[in-house]
Amino acid sequence: MLRLAVLISGRGSNLMAIEQACREGTLDARIDLVIADRPATAGLAAAAERGYRCAVIDRAQLGSRELFEAALDAALRQQTLDLVVLAGFMRVLSGGFVARWAGRLVNIHPSLLPAFKGLNTHRQALAAAATEHGASVHYVTADLDGGPVIAQSAVPVLPDDDETSLSARVQAAEHKLYPAVLQWIASGRLQLTPAGPSLDARLLEHPERIPASS
Ligand code: GRF
pLDDT for 155-203, tens place per residue? Predict the structure, then answer.
């Protein structure tokens, strides 16, 4: 069983999708720790209510990224974890931190990478008049939103979409995509090799596509 730490900054809907998949047995994993980078996030309250071990590593109070990352690393190392799952975690992690967790650190980004890196991806997609948008799960490297992409789910951009409607469609896709990718890791099907992500012993030349609805 894959032992997870899930790092969040806000609502925690991806955390809850992962939690549900663990509970229902479609994901052979266990959430051993939930960490938020600020107090009073909705996701943290929901996790605490469900009895998960929670911690706040308060970036604002810690003052510097170095102190924040040292505290984060220490919290993660207090127990044995297999994978650190960034789920709406709004902090850029340094190259040093990322190197210490290389191959054991994944993120979900709300775009079809390499399109629309950074923030406000739904706004970026609308401004670019994209007809397709979506979400990507990738291994985290020092290259922001640039680590090897494992899998993506695409959704259409509809003519009367605004950021709210588009973001809701992408998030629904994320809630299926992230648990599915985590299950590949849990079952040993997916690893990060020096040549890139390998699924069923086959190097991924392109991200896998997971249908947004079925
Ligand atoms: C998701 O859209 C994720 O892709 C992005 O931040 C959002 C987090 O949402 N990185 P939630 O907190 O999981 O609801």
Answer: 999 999 999 999 999 999 999 999 999 999 999 999 999 999 999 999 9
To test the pocket of ligand 1, the residue of 171, 175, 177, 181 to mutate (highest count of ligand atoms within 8 Å of its CB) is 171
DSSP secondary structure, 19-44, as one string: HHHHHHTSS-EEEEEEEESSSS-HHH
Rounded distance from Cα 89 to ligand 1 centre (Å): 8
Planar angle of CA 117, 207, 211, nearest 5 degrees = 95
pTM higher than 0.85, yes or no? yes
pLDDT tens digit sequence for 10-55:
999 999 999 999 999 999 999 999 999 999 899 999 999 999 999 9
